[in-house]
Amino acid sequence: MLLPLASVAWAQPEGGSDENTFPGNLFPKGAVSKWSLGVFAGPASNHHVIDVAYATDMKYTDKSGYSAGIGAAFHPTGWFALRADVAMVQKNYRLDRDNRFLSFVYTESTNNYLSVPVVAMLSAGRNFKVSGIVGGYGGWWLSGRREGQSLSVSYLITGNQGDTFFDEEYKFNDSRDNRFDAGIVYGFAAQCTIAKKVELSAEMRWYYGLTDVQKNYMTNLNPRYNTTRVIQFGAAYWF
Amino acid sequence: MKHTNIIKLSLLIVLSLASCRKEPLEVTDPDRHFCTTYTSQFETVWTGIDQGYLFWDRDTVDWDEVYERMRPVFLEFDKRGSATDAQLTDAYQSMVRGLLDHHMYVQVKNLKTGNAVYADPAWDEVPYRDYYHYTFFEQQTALLATMPGVTEYKSGGNAFPCFFALFPGSVGKKIAYLRFRSFQVTSVANYLSAADLAPLRAFYGNGIVDGVTNGWAGRDEVEAVIVDVRGNGGGQLADLKPVVASLSASDIDLGYTRTKEGLGRLDYSAWTPFVIPCPSNHLWGDKKVIVLTDVNSVSCSEITALMVQSMPNGTVIGERTYGATCPLISGGHDMLYSGVFGDYGRYGYYVYTSNFDVVDKEYKSLEGVGVTPDIECVFDVNALFAGHDNQLERALEFIRTGK
Q1: What CA–CA distance (Å, rounded) separates A136 from A183?
Q2: A184–B18: do the CB atoms touch at under 8 Å?
Q3: Would B226 be classed as within a structural domain?
Q4: Does A188 map to a domain?
Q5: What would the pLDDT profile of B319-347 be if each residue is shown by its tens digit?
Q6: Binding-face residues of A in 10-39 toward B, CB within 8 A
Q7: Using a CB-CB distance cutoff of 8 angstroms, which residues of chain B are in contact with residue A119?
Q8: Angstroms from B245 CA to nearest CA on chain A
């Protein structure tokens, strides 16, 4: 993620105006670079938000994944940048059964989302900068996989837990699964300029889903949301 | 100052959007709910089926429409302060009409009369099949001992109605015949008397629950077996391995099963293989296995038919079965949030319903349809009362002639 971009504006020696000056005069006059491109990748951790109601032995826990993508940023001023990414973000979770008869039962869900976050980055600093990130994202649930153990009829007959395993590509249910994903993005970043036009960055951001992962297909449906925390390491090139 | 305002505005927008998630609903447990009105009974039963019913992915009933249509009926009962048993039965039958689950029945206590009323979606379908008939278990089994060439006839006691016989087969061979009223073999084997178990032991030997051992099944002179599940209402899944899989030369792969995995109608677990292993000590080999079915063959009887149909040496003869092919475990709602819920004695309602979906290897379900026999032979009641069991005779003919 091109986080770095936002910050680089100040580093350019020529041009610019007072418009580029952040309160406190952290940015020098003269920023000329307006665009940057970058790549990023890093680990992700997803929290699946659901109220299980009386099904209290269903325990959803966070599961790790990854995030990776490319992005472009536009820097109209020294302290502000507008950035758009195209990212693959995994929103995984695990379901365990806290039940003495079903303690072996679990499902690990791996979900791949193509996300397009558009964020504003507000930066401060010089060679080393910090930035606040806020914006929104839209996305699409591309694919999924489910792996685990389930109570099966074979297990009831044989008592053999070997009959309970599954590992399969998730087949979307058009009635249930809402593959459109949207929400807000927020976070912060740190950037460091290592060459004239190259900047490295580390960023933590949260994808806070506002769309239920289920369609509104039944009357009494408890919503499900994803909140995904990603840590991204990236590099950006300034034009 | 302008920049500061932009930051403040951004934060305000973000915080406002963050509150846009829908709040969770208040969801009551339909398994344990004291109901003091007809309407609350209805809503509890409706909710339990809404959350735990297994076939919402393919059932054609519009369950939300059912709620809108039927709730006023129960409100009217409450307004009047009473409903007759017939009115309550009609209301619940109308509620579940068309549901696919052929295991399902709803039992509700009439708050006014104190009587139990029942509703059963299969009852709107099965009796209307053109080959439907009542079960003639007693008449058919009474005829058994008198059929031509029968030897080694044995019958169990009333505790576990069970029958065994040998019929003449090809030259020098015999055909074994086994019939029991329900799949309770693995449980009754531990406490019934030797006399009660005589038919089972005659075929399987003394180690019944271990599969075929030293009974007639292990003898070379027996060329085939007819497992008669006509009128058999089902029973324990545990029977399928020793009673049926022991007649296969290899493990039986029926397809896949799954359960619910949440309270949403379409929250399902993944599919897991439905494989029933063949006991390692079986002695049956590749001899013929015939299952005799009728419209009153239900649940485990139907899985038995599926198992035999999947065997290279197996044939199903008779009628298309009842259509309750997806099993259940009692008390399942506590574990699987699907299946049987309620307690008639305590809460005044009880719903019996499946909690394991079963499909074949092509993910085709037979729930509500039943198992279609390889050789159709419709029951002839007139023949029975003239001294002929036409379906059993057809099975014997098939074994003897191969046609």
Answers
A1: 6
A2: yes
A3: yes
A4: yes
A5: 999 999 999 987 778 888 899 999 999 99
A6: 22-23
A7: none
A8: 11
Nearest Cα of chain B lies from the Cα of A20 at a distance, in angstroms, of 11
Q: Point out the least confidently predicted range of A106-120, B90-104, B328-342.
A: B328-342
| Domain housing B390 | 137-249+284-319+373-401
Report B:39-98 residues touching A (Cβ under 8 A): 47, 50-51, 57, 63-64, 67
Please say whether the beta carbons of B224 and B288 come within 8 A.
Answer: yes
Please report residues of A whose CB lies closer than 8 A to that of B63. Answer: 218
Nearest by CB to A152, from B18, B272, B277: name it: B272
Q: Do A22 and B64 touch (CB under 8 A)?
A: no
What pLDDT sits at residue A61? 97
B179 within some domain: yes
A53 lies in some domain:
yes
In whole angstroms, give the CA distance from residue B244 to residue B278. Answer: 9
B27 touching chain A per CB within 8 A: yes
Note the pLDDT of residue A161: 80
How far is CA A96 from each of CA A58, A151, B29, rounded to the nearest angstrom? Answer: 6, 12, 20
Q: What is the pLDDT of residue A100?
A: 85
Name the pairing type of β-strands B116-119 and B105-109: antiparallel
pLDDT above 50 (res B176): yes
- Indicate whether this complex's ipTM tops 0.90: no
- Which residue of A155, A157, A166 to mutate against B (max B Cβ within 10 Å)? A157
Dist. CA B392–CA B243, nearest whole Å: 20
In a domain? residue B112: no
Mutation site for B-interface testing, chosen from A147, A154, A185 by largest number of B Cβ within 10 Å: A154
Q: Is B194 on the interface with A (CB under 8 A)?
A: no
Determine whether the interchain pair A210/B20 forms a contact, defined as Cβ–Cβ distance below 8 Å.
Answer: yes
Task: Please state, in angstroms and rounded to a whole number, the distance separating the CA atoms of residues B112 and B93.
Answer: 19
Examine residue B243 and state whether it is found in any structural domain, yes or no: yes
**Are B259 and A105 within 8 A, CB to CB?**
no
Q: Could you give the number of structural domains in chain B?
A: 1
Q: What is the pLDDT of residues B240-253, one digit of tens each?
A: 988 999 899 889 99
Question: Is pLDDT above 70 for B25?
Answer: yes
Extract the runs of DSSP E, i.e. beta strands, from A51-160.
Answer: 58-74, 80-90, 93-97, 106-125, 128-149
* Domains in chain A, number: 1
Write the CATH number for A43. Answer: 2.40.160.20
pTM of this structure: 0.89
Q: Which residues on A lie below 8 Å from B261 (Cβ)? A: 95, 107, 150
For residue B222, what is the domain's CATH number?
A: 3.90.226.10
The full DSSP string for A205-217 is EEEEE-S-SB-S-
What is the chain A residue with the closest CA to B46? A220
Domain extent for A80: 3-93+111-140+181-211+218-238
Cβ-in-10-Å burial (0-12, 13-18, 19+) of B2 comes to exposed
Nearest-CA neighbor of A89 among A139, A39, A48?
Answer: A139
Residue A229 lies in a domain: yes
Nearest Cα of chain B lies from the Cα of A174 at a distance, in angstroms, of 10
Question: Which tokens hold the place of B178?
Answer: 């086994």
- Per-residue pLDDT tens over the stretch B257-303: 999 999 999 999 999 999 998 887 777 888 999 999 999 999 999 99
Instruction: Collect all residues of chain B within an 8 Å Cβ-Cβ radius of residue A208.
Output: 18
Q: Domain for residue A165, yes or no?
A: no
Residue linked to tokens 């959803």? A60
